[in-house]
């Protein structure tokens, strides 16, 4: 992989980023096709691919090229689904580390430790337990949002964008679920960018947005657990401010495609404009996500299914239409500090030239 020093020399075309967490992926990665031997299907034209009979354990035993192709597939398709996985949390972490490294993550980035992770957690610091039972007791993003809106669409978010060095990839295995309900939706940030007019794209590419999760401070106090204010997987992620500023439009280095990078869960304000203007722009961008079902894919979980997605270029939203227990294990890797390469292209532009 190219050195970090080499990347810093690109300078003039780059907005955002941080020298401590630069991507090692200088050019878009190419899929060599090693995954084609597995039966798979795209679930929609723009987002989501499901593989049949491909096991995480098999991926862990594979060579580096297969892992690279998996990273490219996840980044191009937004989210990949693997059915009926016999996999442990440790194996999930091992695969997550291989994927993020293969995709050129900075040397300084590791697996994320969520600020609300309980010390001494049985599954380790890097595993977040996604549990409807915990949420009923007042924990998690869902509780905070329920006080603000009764619209299910209020749950759309990308993971941990309040960190200075947020997630590149995330992986979730659902092992406990109700007989019906509990689906998850993902939406494509590439597609949302493509739906902007050229003038709006140019305008937004000059702006940043503030993301924060200060409600986690209140939740930590309410739940009686200390906030994890030490280093959370990257030297850029520490302390209790839980606030970061990122470009409104970012480039995914794996694909070289631009994506809208604001979300309902954590983005509080678009900077460089007045509050009134921010209050118009931010809901408009979020409405492009929530009101365009043809930019989304909806996944119906079965027991032990697993999803891997790219947080740089997607949003997701759980469907809380059930009463029975629903639980799973999630691990997030950390990528580069978000940046925009002005020379990068949109998804449609890139595909039309090939």
From TrEMBL:
Keyword Disulfide bond: no
Ranges for domain TauD/TfdA-like: 41-325
GO MF: 2-oxoglutarate-dependent dioxygenase activity; metal ion binding
Keywords noted in UniProt: Dioxygenase, Iron, Metal-binding, Oxidoreductase
Region Disordered: start-end pairs: 103-123
Domain of life: Eukaryota
Names of the cofactor(s): Fe(2+)
InterPro entries: AtsK-like, TauD-like_sf, TauD/TfdA-like
GO cellular component: cytoplasm
Family: Belongs to the TfdA dioxygenase family.
Protein name: TfdA family taurine catabolism dioxygenase TauD
Upper lineage: Eukaryota, Fungi, Dikarya, Ascomycota, Pezizomycotina
């Amino acid at each position: 992989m190219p050195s970090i020093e080499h990347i810093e020399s690109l300078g003039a075309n780059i907005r955002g980023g941080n020298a401590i967490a630069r991507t090692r992926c200088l050019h878009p990665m190419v899929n060599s096709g090693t995954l084609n031997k597995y039966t798979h299907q795209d679930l929609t034209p723009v987002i989501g691919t499901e593989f049949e009979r491909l096991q995480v354990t098999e991926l862990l035993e594979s060579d580096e090229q297969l892992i690279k192709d998996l990273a490219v597939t996840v980044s191009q398709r937004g989210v990949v689904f693997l059915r009926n996985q016999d996999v442990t949390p440790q194996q999930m972490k091992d695969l997550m580390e291989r994927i993020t490294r293969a995709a050129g993550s900075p040397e300084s980035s590791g697996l994320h430790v969520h600020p609300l992770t309980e010390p001494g957690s049985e599954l380790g610091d890097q595993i977040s337990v996604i549990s409807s039972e915990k949420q009923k007791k007042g924990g998690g993003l869902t509780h905070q949002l329920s006080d603000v809106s009764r619209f299910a669409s209020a749950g759309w978010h990308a993971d941990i964008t309040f960190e200075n060095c947020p997630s590149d990839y995330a992986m979730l295995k659902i092992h406990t679920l109700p007989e019906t309900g509990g689906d998850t939706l993902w939406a494509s940030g590439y597609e949302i960018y493509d739906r902007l007019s050229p003038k709006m794209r140019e305008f937004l590419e000059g702006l940043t947005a503030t993301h924060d999760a200060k409600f986690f401070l209140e939740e930590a106090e309410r739940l009686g657990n200390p906030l994890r204010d030490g280093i959370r997987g990257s030297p850029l992620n520490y302390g209790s401010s839980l606030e970061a500023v990122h470009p409104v439009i970012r480039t995914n280095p794996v694909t070289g495609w631009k994506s809208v990078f604001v979300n309902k869960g954590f983005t509080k304000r678009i900077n460089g404009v007045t509050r009134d203007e921010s209050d118009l722009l931010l809901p408009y961008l979020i409405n492009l996500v929530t009101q365009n079902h043809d930019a989304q894919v909806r996944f119906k979980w079965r027991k032990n299914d697993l999803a891997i997605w790219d947080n740089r270029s997607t949003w997701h939203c759980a469907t809380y239409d059930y009463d029975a227990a629903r639980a799973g294990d999630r691990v997030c890797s950390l990528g580069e500090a978000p940046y925009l390469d002005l020379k990068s292209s949109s998804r449609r532009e890139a595909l039309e030239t090939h």
